[in-house]
Amino acid sequence: MIFDLFLLETIISGILFGGVLALLALGLNLVFGVVDVVWICYAELVMVGMYSIYWGHAHFQLPLLLCMVIAILAVALLGFLIHYLVIRPILGTPPINQLLVTGGLLFFMQSFATLLFTGDFRNLGLHLPILKLAEMYISFSRLIAFGTALLAMIALYLFLTRTFLGTAIRAISQDREVVVLMGVNAQRVYLAASTLGGGLAGLGAALLILQYDVHPMIGISFGPLTFMICVLGGLGNLIGGFIAAFVMSQFIALGGFFLDSEWGYVIAFVFFIIVMFLRPQGLFGKRS
Amino acid sequence: MTWFPKFAALALLAAVPFLELPDYYMHVLILILIWGFVYTGWSLMGRFGLVSLGHGAFLGIGGYTVVLLWNYYGVTPWLGIPVALVLAGIVALIVGYPCFQFRIVGHYFALVTLALAEVVRLLIIAMRDHTGGSLGLTPERYGDGMSVYAFQFVEKDYFYGIVLVSWIFGIWVWNRVEGSMARYSMEAISDDEDASAALGINVTWEKVKITLYSSALTAFGGALYGQYQMYVNPDTISGISVSLQIVFASIVGGMYVALGPTVGAAITILLTESLRVMVGVELAGLDGTIYGLMLILFIIFMPRGIVGTVWSRSAESLNVPKDSPS
Known about the structure:
The complex is a heterodimer.
Chain A: H1 2-35, H2 42-58, H3 64-87, H4 95-117, E1 130-133, E2 136-139, H5 140-162, H6 164-174, H7 176-181, H8 186-208, H9 218-232, H10 238-258, H11 261-278
Chain B: H1 3-15, H2 23-46, H3 55-73, H4 77-101, H5 106-126, H6 128-131, E1 146-147, E2 152-153, H7 156-178, H8 181-191, H9 193-198, H10 203-229, H11 234-237, H12 240-253, H13 260-279, H14 286-301, H15 305-314
Antiparallel strand pairs in B: 1-2
Helix pairs in contact in B: 2-7, 2-10, 2-12, 2-13, 3-4, 3-5, 3-10, 4-10, 8-10, 12-13, 12-15, 13-14
């Protein structure tokens, strides 16, 4: 009986972790679906967001919520700048160059963060309560993160389906040539999607800083996972990525429960590689 | 008369141990040659558009296999290295073959190989009872640390000789590929797979072949690095960080010319080392900041790298591919 409760607790914490991953995968997928560029540095944007919150709160003693809003706006601006300054000049070149240039950004952001903040682990020193539910312990911060991530995803869904810009974004991810003929300014949509993708990374940062210490290398610990989730769900497929996030987080949670936390990741990544062979377009993707 | 500059350069490199340079300079030179060798191995694939973000996996397999066999079974690295190369080849085949068979290219290939690099890193950490996990592993010292049998040489001059020969071998392999039919097949494939297949090129086999060369060279580089440093660590020789390091240094130097990857190694290592000597460790991260900016500018303004750009400007007639890989 106790065993089953532990197992249930593991599954629940896996679901909660999946919520945040789904949010990040959504941002990355949005950028990919629209601009057709994989931002290898996406998790580093989250790192920048976490540092801005930490800085604002611990250094300038600003209220936490304000810091979070500032961080979301700052990372959204960063997303805008990445597209405007780095991606735009090489849009016409082979796609792998665009992937690699964001890899350069990854090095830059990691090292610059080390330069500014050193490699130390830092946290806000928050102590959020832990819920006790029928002998199970569920972290309140994870619950908040999960709930906020879900709300944000619903808001994004409404934005994409109910507004003109959202419709243009969906249209451009379906056929980027015809949409331009329909009078949509593609560059503007690219910028909007990049800004939105940045904003989602900022929101991810606000949710992750409740649970994790921030350090310059934190991006490496969940960046690769985020790409794999996107690819698993079919790159650019928002709903596929959402489901894949929960599949991967369950692998990690259950693998960690029965074996070791590294084994959870090993199983998840091997699963990813195998799925790539069986369905290269992703679990829910259409083959292009 | 193209042989003369080459010969002179080789003679100069071979004469370095007799110059009685301080150990630190020898150390930097050895690092440049080892990494130059590894980057050359990666570029064999990279130049044909097979951008692997997973070469850290082969580096890790190379380094760890040799050290584990030596520490636990007393197997000399002279046997351990061939075993490591075969293992790396098998892993390359297991992941590469289905990738090529199922036409996983571009982004998808990069991300699958990225997953492979992480799997190897995590496996090394997870098997910490044998591998020492994140703390790394030291090969057991044999006698006074100078032994051909154990492939351990505390004297830097000896190691320099070994590394130099390996590096020349790497460049030789590169040139062999450059002058082979496989090169034309691979260039055709990276332009258009369907058309090449229609012309009778066995797309999967050509890709597998080049992947095997590339992974074996990289694993050998990993073994050399482990034996030289007398220490292997999952975060420095496997996983995503070192994989990206391999890709980017090759791009900075230029992956379409034989010496490009080595120049990339020289630039990145000299940048790190000189900043460390001049600025010290208080500004940790400065080298990476400059390096990251350099990468971004390189990919935007000269995607063929330093050597590649200089080369093609001085000799327009050379048959260097006009576009970067797709």
